Automatic annotation (TrEMBL):
This is DUF615 domain-containing protein. PANTHER family: UPF0307 PROTEIN YJGA. One of its GO terms (molecular function) is rRNA binding. It holds the Pfam family DarP. GO terms for cellular component: cytosol. InterPro entries: DarP, DarP_sf. CDD domains: YjgA-like. GO terms for biological process: ribosome biogenesis. Keywords: Cytoplasm, Ribosome biogenesis, RNA-binding, rRNA-binding.
Length: 169
């Protein structure tokens, strides 16, 4: 005997699929392409990204929910959304670490710089030169420019370290 789903169960499942489809709206076009969505669903999500009117966007979300019910297996979509969230969190962590090291290096000078190099596991001549320039500069505008360059170089180093650490796992 085949058990029939209740109307409430079907509605909960369709609302869950619609919510999953709404999460697709926030993804970039590159991320959408990597998921491998159905053409109609991909177009509906792309259209929703460009909509500004609340009523139109609400109707578009309902259409996305309807198209999501036609998806055979929503697990790859759910996994792609979760991985994009992990990437965003990782970028925030890298940014926060970069700010931390920049502030320490510009306040504590060479001691913090040496500790940063120990953390990285190698020296960076460009960063050393930038810190020396920052210490010797008296003009506030030039110091701010050098501080931004220090930030950028620290960010690049931390990003490369994270990339190397995750590729070896």
């Amino acid at each position: 005997m085949i058990s029939k789903q209740s109307k409430s169960t079907k509605k909960r499942e369709s609302l869950a699929l619609q919510a999953l489809g709404e999460q697709l709206i926030g993804l970039s076009s590159e991320q959408l392409n990597s998921i491998g969505l159905d053409k109609r669903l991909h177009k509906a999500v792309a259209d929703a990204n460009s909509m500004r009117g609340r009523g139109a966007l609400k109707r578009q979300k309902q259409l996305i929910g309807k198209l999501m019910r036609d998806v055979v297996d929503p697990k790859p979509i759910r996994a792609a959304i979760e991985s994009s969230g992990m990437k965003d969190r990782l970028e925030k962590i890298i940014f926060n670490q970069t700010e931390y090291w920049r502030d320490r290096i510009t306040v504590e000078d060479t001691d913090a710089l040496e500790e940063f190099f120990e953390h990285l596991g190698h020296q960076n001549d460009l960063l050393t030169n930038l810190v020396e320039s920052w210490l010797n500069e008296v003009n506030d505008c030039a110091r701010m420019k050098i501080k931004r360059l220090i930030f950028r170089e620290i960010h690049n180093e931390i990003y490369l370290k994270v990339q190397n650490d995750t590729s070896t796992v």
